[in-house]
Fold:
Amino acid sequence: MPELDRDFVIDQLERTVSKTKILRNDIMIVCPFHADTDPSCSVHISDHKGFAIGTYHCWSCGASGGWGKLADKLGLEHGEYYHPDNPFGSRLKAIERKEKEEMDLRRELFRNHMPLGCSPWEFGDWRKISEEYLVGLGAQRYYDDRSGCFRIVFPVKSRIGVIIGSITRRLDDGTNYRWLNSTGRWIRKALYPCDSLPKNIKTVALVEGAYDAIRLNHIGIPALSILGTQNWDLGKMSILDALGIKNIVICMDGDAAGRGAEGKIFAATEDKFNRKRFRLPFENPPVDPGNMSLERVEALREFGGF
Structure:
């Protein structure tokens, strides 16, 4: 990581700290390590007297340390995207480069849209979904070296059964990359699992996540996942049309993102389908079709005429 400089430190602090005072060699801020009201914490913005830029010392409570500790406390950048030639404009480019590297690495880990090293699912039920049903979906298991965990992987197919992508979910309780998809633009053109819906279905529930759709289908409610609120696309309507769907029940997660997606879908499908909205309440933790109570499941079944 390049050595930090004055502009980077000042920019970061002024984004977060309400009271600052810039001096020749330091910037004074309200100390985040005690109940401070007047700036009493000095952060070095030059290498005056041999102190590294970004180190700090509070003249009131005595807290001191390096930039990393202060950045963690205030929720600031450590400087991994910092470039001394252009500390502001190049930051976005650095992030984009890192994302591209991530995508390139993920491509190396997938073949024909499926992760390398997959084995057929023979590990029992998963999240109350029967092993038999999982096998019917083509579920497999593999070990993800980067996340250090096993994952369940589901092939995503077109309506005629061609694999176009895959979605994976951690099998442990870790939160880092809980869901991970194969790379490519396929996700904007897919509804899951459109290939395994019963024939001649006219009404489906549109849900947000893959597990939402898996759970509802498992208990007899035809459902299709849009694979994330950010992945709704008008092209998905052509899939619904090709499947012969006439009626949709929009059932997104009970949060702000879900409400936003619901509005987009409801507006986009106005002249194409008969549609209803089955709204889940805003609660903590959030309610979604994958975790809602059986009472709500039955209410959805009745509401949609499933």
